[in-house]
Write a structure and sequence with these properties.
153 residues; mainly alpha; two-stranded antiparallel sheet; 4 strands
Length: 153
């Protein structure tokens, strides 16, 4: 039984220390921090001027109260939730949707840059030489005659 746990623990260590798993963990941690930055940017920088331009609307305080018994109007979302009212918080959803679009756009730009770097790297690695089948010297890929042994290629 102890041997079983040791063997599986060693397998797990090998798996966990592979480069891809560690890279993925770092990506998840950075992604979570990036998500918080974007969330703050949407809530604190983008939405206040947008709400102001739309007639001093506070998106985070936009909601519908579902009718349960007597209809009561609440001055804010916090007051409605404190009273136990059932609410549909569409303003918070709008904030979250804008955050998602910004994160998705940032990821798109990141992937686009990575793909461009990979394409540049592939161009650098293109084969420009070949080996002569007679004398095995290295010659240009476009050559039709070997400069060393004059063999037709």
């Amino acid at each position: 039984m102890l041997d079983f746990f040791k063997r599986n623990l060693n397998e797990f260590k090998t798996f966990a220390m592979r480069g891809n798993v560690v890279d993925m963990a770092v990506g998840i941690i950075i992604g979570a921090a990036f998500g918080k930055i974007v969330d703050s940017m949407v809530k604190d920088i983008i939405m206040p001027p947008l709400g102001w331009l739309m007639g001093k609307v506070d998106f985070s305080n936009m909601y519908w109260t579902l009718p349960v018994g007597d209809k009561v109007d609440y001055p804010s979302l916090e007051a409605a939730q404190a009273a136990g009212a059932v609410t549909i918080n569409y303003g918070i959803f709008i904030n979250t949707l804008i955050s998602f679009v910004l994160v998705a756009f940032a990821v798109f730009l990141l992937i686009k840059c990575i793909n461009k770097l990979r394409a540049d790297k592939k161009e650098e690695c293109e084969v420009t030489t070949k080996t002569c089948p007679r004398c095995f010297s290295t010659i240009d890929i476009k050559a039709t005659k070997c400069p060393c042994c004059t063999a037709d290629i």
